[in-house]
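Lecture 7 notes: from sequence to structure.
We start with the chain below.
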Amino acid sequence: MVASAQLRLGIIGTDTSHVIAFAKFFNDPLSPDHVPGAVIVAAYKGGSPDLESSRSRVDQYAEELRTKWKVKFYPDIPTLCKNVDAILLESVDGRVHLEQVKPVFAAHKPVFVDKPLAATLADAQEIAKLGKQAGVPWFSASSLRYGDIATQMKFPDTSGAITWGPGPLEPTHQLDLSWYAIHPIEMLYALMGRGCVEVSRTYTPDADILVGTWKDGRIGTVHVLRPYGPYGAVIFRTKPAANGKAGSTVVVQSDPKMLEGYRPMLVEIVKFFETKEPPVSNEETLEIFAFMDAALRSKEAGGAPQKLR
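Predicted structure tokens for the same chain:
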């Protein structure tokens, strides 16, 4: 029996392992990692037939949600929305997020949109516009924003940062970095904040180096590794080091999966559904997409710096 105080959550898209992980955190009250305040009660299967990582997993994860976690499935998103308090838009395919979020906004349900928010800057901007017009709060974030690097290495005197992490590419996504490299890019933004004005990109089949220039003169760099590699960061600070010299450096490298970020992110999601206040501003999320768009244009221009738009 679901306690009346708990928020009833609905899932859109069962083609990512996130839905199983999230169900374990929300729906198992006996787990030491249980996230209170919400329970997943309903879902819409979704799925993208032309995306292998979606096609091969959507039925498997849907069946586990149905049988193990007793999640009820609905044939369409509007019907799903009628039976829940808030939405987790989990479809692994960023291309479908704009169309899938439209009935959520129409139903006036707060929504968390899992990464990537969209597959193009234009779609991300349209989602933001429609959400604002409908007066419906939303936010999107990578779980890496809530991992050790982003939470323990954030300093008010950060003068620059380097982050790194995996960034395999998915041909179906026009904004190529949005598929997976959004993780180390969002880490950079968690550490540096908004304000990037220009990006240059050096591309090879095995890696990317993205260099962003902030309006206050700071520089943030992302090393994108392919196909996979660990996550990490270097922070440059103006605070004097122990020897009295300025520019002390902090270095951290963590486990490639960074799973410790799931629970803290889910706690923030529940707070968001309760307060309707996004923990990551929509403006910052859109700047991250503008950063990736500028990086794509830089790649197409042979590495020449490109302004954010």
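Points to note: The chain has ten helices and 13 strands. The radius of gyration is 19 Å.
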